[in-house]
Amino acid sequence: MAEAHQAVGFQFTVRPDGVDLRLSQEVIKNIYLSGVTAWKKRAIQFKNGVLAGVYPASPSSWLIVVIAMMSSLYIRIDPSLGMIDAIKDNLPRRSEIPCGPCKPATRAVLSAILFATGLWLFLIYLLRYTLKALLSYHGWIFESHGKMSTSTKVWLMFSGRRPLLYSFQASLPRLPVPSLDDTIQRYLDSVRPLLDSDQYDQMEILANDFKDSKAAQLQRYLMLKSWWATNYVSDWWEEYIYLRGRSPIMVNSNFYIMDLLYVTPTHRQAARAGNVVHAMLKYRRKLERGEHAPVMALGTVPMCSSQMERMFNTTRIPGIETDIVQHLTDRKHLVVYHKGRFFQVWLYTGGRHLLPSELETQFQRILNDTSEPQPGELKLAALTAGNRVPWARARIKYFGQGVNRVSLDAIESAAFFLTLDDEPQGYDPAKTDSLDSYAKSLLHGNCYDRWFDKSFTLISYPNGKMGINAEHSWADAPIVGHMWEYVLATDCFQLGYTEEGHCKGDVNKGLPHPTRLQWQIQKECQGVIETSYRSAKQIADDVDFHAYLFSDFGKGLIKKCRTSPDAFIQLALQLAQFRDQGVFCLTYESSMTRMFRDGRTETVRSCTSEAVAFVRAMEDTSATNKATLKRLGLFRKAADTHQNMYRLAMTGSGIDRHLFCLYIVSKYLGVDSPFLKKVLSEPWKLSTSQTPQQQLNLVDITKFPKYVGAGGGFGPVADDGYGVSYIIVGENLITFHISCKFSSADTDSCRFSQNIQKAMLDIQGLFKAENDKKMVELGTHVQLENGKKHI
């Protein structure tokens, strides 16, 4: 036991002549080192806080301004226009304060320093608001590829100094509230291809009635919130979309991220977990100090980093009506689940992180432990997989005191949660369903072997593969993806393994063993756990999942066609959806709004009138060969429309978050709006998302082509619809993660993947036909020219 190990360091004996106190030198050394580490951490955080606080200036610039002002005293030039003299006149004299400044020269120097400091602070705020004005301009995103606006060039002049993670936070603009007319018109345009004439006319009447009656009042309140809060959407989005949901978060909300696709650095489970956990601790340390570089759009424009703050030490706490997100600081342990047992593992020793080899030792001890689970312990985590209200009530009733409270606190206060699984997973080219099994394992597992409330659960498999299941309320997938990219690169290219597959470094067998968490779970509580498990298992068993590697072509060929890879894939999904279902449907594509402070996501409605026209042209069996150019023209028009919609969403002019917030205001005011009710009740039968690659500098995939990730995915949003996540990997690979439900007779994940493949190839065929035609025309022209020369 860890407590017993620490207790032997401090002993005392009572004697007749007093108390004989004996202290262990090892313990005193550890206490000293821990204190030194803590003060170093505070000093670094303070330094980085100052650097971020004065950005885009630097502390050294204060000295430059002071020296300049001091120099003016000697050359008798007053750049302050008399302000230094005014400050000097108001400084106390010796006659007023006995120990105050007396010499005129001393008072002049002090007044110059005070003026220089004020001028320096003024310049900082001037530069910061200049940056905010520049960053509020988003015209650059609508420009043609390769062009750069004057504002962007000016912005580049201000971003020369290497920024820290939070350097730009104070300079990021607020998310603007779009105009009502624009939002309503864009909404009507988005549903036009999905409704017949009568349905559209009815929707238009509802929209116009809303605009003419209640919309202006709701908009005024929304404008007021946008002026007062840093972001008018994000807090309501977190609360009402995530935390107030009472249905299970497993599958319905949580998402997953896979390991490297082709490479497994070691097949030793404990060693891989040791390296990955150590890499995560390194990432957390840089995160706490703000030392990560901020994520930049197009490598130039900064994006908000506020979501990263809650990546570690964070848990979603269940409530009867609403959950809360609990974020703690400086947690020094993690909790490990293995074969029904929970273990607490300390991550520090002697004021430093455990080394990879030390973590491997700890995890191997857990793997070697043959003890049995305590009554009710095996499926305890199923409480986090089931409905939220039973979990909230059970938490209050059965986990509010005693050993249960202590053990639950250990889980909820842990840096993160680690599961050591006992069934191998990963991509196997010889098995067609290997990625499907891997995806389902990460998404829901056995429904009781992941703590779905933790910010993320790290999952380790016995063949060395890893993966993550992440809770969604605290952040979006790119945030977790950013950490995972860093961890995989650090694991493979910095930490490495020995020839035998172990972590590098000496083995420290003197570490205290991991501690078993203790539980006293009553029979009644075990019944609640079993009920949650059955509910979760029913959801998990209904998930039809298929992950598919599309390697016929990738981003390289698509860019040669002078079109956006994302628009290409989205139009292929529209074509696949129509071929699969025979109808068009409301389509959700996630876009980010992190160019604004505290921004999260916005919806791109991908099923546009232009996309529908293109799909109908592709499916027109009566068309002749001459229709190819027409189809290609319709494709380009649809792709341009999609790109414009995406850019509008990124720059704060989306549709759905504005309408969502108007609806929330209407509920607060007790205003009934049939239009908003109709909008918010529409089902998204096709929900899509692209997994971005954010840190391409970490791994050179041209040099290491096998070190590519497989992306991640999520469960189906609608009972009779599809969820599609995709990642564009390098130049020649696109990975699709497709989910739906077995209970729906209309959907089939494998069938949909085949439709996606055929749609991608059919669209590529349009460009191939165009290219072939150009080559024929060029050949004919050359023959004519050669004939003329011969004559």
TrEMBL record:
Name of the featured protein: Carnitine O-palmitoyltransferase 1, muscle isoform
Coiled coil (residue ranges): none
PROSITE patterns: ACYLTRANSF_C_1, ACYLTRANSF_C_2
Family of this protein: Belongs to the carnitine/choline acetyltransferase family.
Subcellular location: Mitochondrion outer membrane
Pathways per UniProt: Lipid metabolism; fatty acid beta-oxidation
Organism: Scophthalmus maximus (Turbot)
Any GO MF annotation of the entry: carnitine O-palmitoyltransferase activity
Domain Choline/carnitine acyltransferase: 175-758
Domain Carnitine O-palmitoyltransferase N-terminal positions: 1-47
Lineage: Eukaryota, Metazoa, Chordata, Craniata, Vertebrata
InterPro entries linked: Carn_acyl_trans (IPR000542), CAT-like_dom_sf (IPR023213), Cho/carn_acyl_trans (IPR039551), Cho/carn_acyl_trans_2 (IPR042231), CPT_N (IPR032476)
Gene name per UniProt: cpt1b
Main location: mitochondrion
